[in-house]
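Internal tracking record. Fields below are filled automatically when a chain is submitted to the structure queue. Please do not edit lines marked as system-generated. If the sequence contains nonstandard residues, flag them in the REMARKS field before resubmitting.
Queue: standard
Priority: normal
Entity type: single polypeptide chain
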Amino acid sequence: MDADLLERLAGHRMLSAVPLAEREWVARHGEFRRHVAGEVINSKGNLVPGLLIVLSGHLGIYVDRGGGLQRVLSWGPGDVTGLLPYSRMKSPPGNTIAEVDSEVAFVSRECLQEMTRECFEFTSMLVHVMVDRAREFNSNEAQNERMASLGKLAAGLSHELNNPASAVARSAKLLGEHLRGVESSSRKLGEARLSDAQVAALEATRDMVTTPLNHVRSPIEAARHESEISDWLEDHGANQSTADALADTAITIDALDSLVRTLDRDHLDAALCWVAEGSTVRRMAREIEQAGTRISELVSQVKKFSRMDHATVAESVSLGEGLMATLAMLRSKAQSKSVSVSVVVDPNLPSVRGFAGELNQIWVNLIDNAIDAVAESGHVEVTASHEDGSVVVRVVDDGPGIPPEVRERIFDAFFTTKPVGSGLGLGLDVVRRLVLHNDGGIKVLSDPGHTEFQVTLPLVDVRNTGVGTVAR
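SYSTEM-GENERATED OUTPUT FOLLOWS
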């Protein structure tokens, strides 16, 4: 027995509280080891060799999340780590590294079964340590998974907001220029002292150009119409600068002929400029309105997506809003792959009892995974229906499917088929735990061309909605 190691164990926070006989057992079967700063003690993918009793220094476990190694847990003097009794862990989720020069007592995995028989009190302490470690690690990693999901959503939302915001800025800037054109042409027409008949003809032309087109012109039709307008302006000696604006409207050559028969040629340019600039101003105002409405809708979807994240008790949740809000968050990712995502919710779908923020995280992970799974121009279908006293949400994709040997492990923590740095392997583990926390169930069916995740959730008991009990 190593007397020096026994003395060091007597000063260890945990082992000092166990009987001397148990410390002596550890000293007989343990090995004193020194690790220099930066040394990798256990590597991800390798079998955990045994128990580590930290005597001095600091150890940390580091996981690669795509941006380099990040520490998720650490241990100092008085702590224990590595393989613990009754633990099912075979391989660590990351690399265990000595952060500074450290000293440990190492007990190999082959001795742990005997230790559980000979060291009852120490083993009991280690079981509590194992439970606490699992809880802390799962909590940290679940939070990291949520942050990773939020990062994806933020990137998509930024893209979604950028387009309408840019449209608002662009149209607002040009709007001032075209308003000056309206003012200039208005002054010229005011100086012309038009007759009532001329004013009426001018207003009729304006009404025509402000009337929305009843169909979208094809590229060939649009090019032909612009060419006709340009030729007409040239034939009548009019300014060609209005051609583009007039070509985007419903104006016809007959309407232009009618206008030129009423107006003097000296006033034609001012009249066409007034009509064209007025049409452009109205078009830009509509674009600003549409872009502003789009921004407002996105903000509303974000509120619907996140408004329940602070709920501390389960309550009645309408799934339709959450599913549509989730789709809004992931729309840009789907568009980047030309993936079509459809959401079909039963119009009479009853409410479920749960935590809306957690349910939204479930939908994010499942739909995000489905978009990743399909090829370019693939399809993802999300449905929600009332079946046998529960609500069933299905996320179906037409990707290659999940092989049987992989299907058995997809809900395991840290299991992933994505390349290193592209996923933590926590998404479906988080989904499974969130579904269980909401009193639901989840299963997967998969064949080539059809992978389906089914989430079943309990209904709110309509007989007692005040307290939100579950319909059983």
